[in-house]
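Consider the tokenized backbone below.
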């Protein structure tokens, strides 16, 4: 079971023991399968969150490297023998560029978060609908068996 699913090895023992319980009117295998699907959804959601976090960290690293590189260039320029007006104009231009890059960076991070949230929400909605349909089928099956 654990080779094809996201259930840890110790979970296999728990599921097997759980399936062996006999409760009148309750399909323990279906209940265990439902719980297994819930655990798989949780693992899948965690994986998507980790992937998004890694993307954001990678983006942050690139952004900070570029920011420090630009800051270093600005410091070098300010240490040259240019006029105060030229230094001020260069500083103003660099400030504008950094502001534009910061806004673009925030948009990129927001896009990653939105896409991740959409994927997670879609998988949760799909899982909820499947679980609801499974529950209805179990109720119909138990009704027919009575």
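A designed sequence for it:
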């Amino acid at each position: 079971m654990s080779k094809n699913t996201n259930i840890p090895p110790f979970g296999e023992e728990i599921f097997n023991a759980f399936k062996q319980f006999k409760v009148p009117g309750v399909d323990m295998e279906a209940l265990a399968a439902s719980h297994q699907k819930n655990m798989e959804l949780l693992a899948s959601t965690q994986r998507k969150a980790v992937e998004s976090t890694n993307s954001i960290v990678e983006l942050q690293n690139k952004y900070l490297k570029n920011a420090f590189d630009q800051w270093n260039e600005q410091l070098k320029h300010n240490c040259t023998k240019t006029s105060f007006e030229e230094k001020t104009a260069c500083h103003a231009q660099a400030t504008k560029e950094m502001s534009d890059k910061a806004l673009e960076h925030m948009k990129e991070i927001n896009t990653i978060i939105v896409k991740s949230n959409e994927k997670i929400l879609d998988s949760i909605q799909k899982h909820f609908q499947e679980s609801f349909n499974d529950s209805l089928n179990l109720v119909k099956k138990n009704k027919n068996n009575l």
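The mean pLDDT is 82.
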